[in-house]
Design goal:
The complex is a heterodimer of chains A (151) and B (85).
Chain A lengths: L1 H19 L21 E8 L14 E2 L5 E8 L2 E13 L2 E14 L3 E8 L7 E9 L7 E7 L1
Parallel strand pairs in A: 2-8
Antiparallel strand pairs in A: 1-3, 3-6, 4-5, 4-7, 7-8
Chain B lengths: L2 H6 L9 E6 L3 E9 L6 H9 L5 H7 L15 E5 L3
Antiparallel strand pairs in B: 2-3
The chains are: A mainly beta (151), B alpha+beta (85).
Chain lengths: 151, 85
């Protein structure tokens, strides 16, 4: 009996030490590096009007203009980086179109920006339907199109 | 005759349209696009846009990617016309 007890004691110690052994804390996760890539420039809105303010926004949005008006298209962009914005102005008569003007602006943006394009015609605009298409960089399709009238 | 000319048949004349652009962001360049027509020269185009035929060099310098000789421009070429200074 003594022999048996003597044999059990080391076993009990061993079992106890295993049971009481604290588990190692998990290794800390590797540090995560958050690299924020710059969001490329995108077009947020296009508004037409007869005047713009110092902030390049139209003071009163309009879709109808007089024959002697200067027509402004204010283009709001988001994102950052180099961008090329192109405004293609057209006169539309049925299924025919005539190019009125095409102007491109290239800029370096670090934050949202407002860009303006404007056209005027000293001899007066022919009455009818017009549209302006805004293109971004070298993408073939316009990112936004606005129609307006001269009456 | 270019495809654009065909579309313009019987349409009003917009050759006296004046245009411009600006931005709240630092601007690198502002330019109009002009499609060369038969009989055009850089001097003639400069006279039309700037009122001075001697400004042809500005147009040439803005288009050295497509023009190698200022005396050789062809109908259908699309030229960048830098904004008036």
């Amino acid at each position: 009996m003594k022999k048996l007890a003597a044999g059990l004691i080391p076993l009990l110690f061993l079992a106890g030490s295993v049971a009481c052994k604290k588990s190692e804390p998990p290794p800390p996760p590797p540090p995560t590096t958050t690299t924020t890539l710059p969001v490329p420039v995108g077009v947020l809105a296009v508004n037409l009007g007869k005047e713009i303010g110092a902030d390049k926004r139209v003071t009163a949005p309009a879709e109808s203009f007089g024959m002697k008006d200067t027509i402004y298209a204010s283009v709001e962009t988001t994102g950052a980086g180099h961008a090329k914005l192109r405004a293609h102005w057209s006169f539309v008569k049925g299924d025919k179109t005539a190019k009125v003007d095409e102007t491109t602006i290239e800029f370096e943006s670090s934050a949202p920006a407002v860009n303006e394009f404007h056209i005027s015609k000293p001899s007066g605009w022919p009455k009818g339907d017009y549209r302006v298409e805004i293109f971004l960089d070298d993408v073939v399709a316009p990112v936004m199109t606005k129609s307006f009238k001269v009456s | 005759m270019t495809a654009e000319d065909k579309k313009d048949e019987g349409m009003p004349d917009f050759s006296d349209v004046q245009s411009g652009a600006s931005s709240t962001a630092p601007v690198a360049k502002v330019y109009e696009t002009y499609e060369v027509k038969r009989g055009d020269s850089l001097s003639k185009i400069a006279k039309h846009f700037y009122g001075n035929a001697n400004d042809w060099k500005r147009i040439f310098e803005a288009n050295t990617d497509i023009l190698k000789d200022p005396n050789k421009i062809f109908p259908g070429q699309k030229l960048k016309i830098p904004a008036k200074q």
